Each structure stands twice: as C-alpha cells, then as structure tokens.
C-alpha cells in the first residue's frame, strides 16, 4: 500500500512532476480516495475517474469521512 503517491502529469510532451496526488494505492491496481465531506458530489467521481484514466488502473473507491468512524472493532 502506498500513501500520497504523486502522479506526474504529461501534457504535450512536457512532464510536470508536481502533478496529482493519490491518497492510497493498493497493489498498484486500486485507488482509494478519502474525502472529508458529508456527501459525495459528481465532482468527486470525476476526480477519481481522471486518476483511473491517467494511471490505467480499473478500480477505485471513494471514502467519505474517516473510515475509523464507520468501523467498530470488538474483541473478546
């Protein structure tokens, strides 16, 4: 798993290293984008679709709010 992976942007043959930043990438095949919002907007989906197209990955997940707020761990 890689966090805050920087994705360079190449436009018209020019490579810009300070491109896009992916929140989480799992096994170089899944992008997980965390959004600190109450609800998802079409803009958030478009954002992730852009990342998928630029990386060639086929799967992405949008996560709203910290995942720790939605998971409760219980152990005996």
What's this model, at a glance?
The chain has one helix at residues 42-55, and strands spanning 2-11, 14-26, 30-35, 59-64. The protein has 76 residues and is α+β, with helices and mostly antiparallel strands.
Q: Features of this protein?
A:
globular, 1 helix, four-stranded mixed sheet, 76 residues
Helix percent reads 10-25%
Q: What is the number of domains?
A: 1
How large is the count of helical segments? Answer: 1
The major beta sheet can be summarized as: 4 strands, mixed
**Could you give the order of the helices and strands?**
EEEHE
Unreliable segments of 5+ consecutive residues? none
**What is the strand content?**
over 45%
Task: Walk me through the structure.
This protein is an alpha+beta fold. The protein has one domain (2-69). Helix content is 18%, strand content 46%. The chain has one helix at 42-55, and strands at residues 2-11, 14-26, 30-35, 59-64. A four-stranded mixed beta sheet has the order 1-2-3-4, covered by helices on one side. Strand 2 (14-26) and strand 3 (30-35) form a beta hairpin. The two termini are 29 Å apart. The mean pLDDT is 79.
Element layout with pairings:
Blueprint: E1 2-11, E2 14-26, E3 30-35, H1 42-55, E4 59-64
């Amino acid at each position: 798993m890689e966090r805050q992976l920087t994705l360079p942007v190449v436009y018209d043959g020019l490579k810009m290293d300070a491109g896009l930043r992916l929140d989480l990438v799992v096994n170089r095949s899944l992008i997980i984008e965390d959004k600190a919002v109450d609800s998802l907007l079409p803009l958030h989906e478009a954002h992730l679709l852009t990342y998928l197209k630029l990386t060639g990955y086929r799967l992405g997940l949008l996560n709203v709010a910290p995942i720790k707020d939605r998971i409760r761990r219980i152990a005996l």
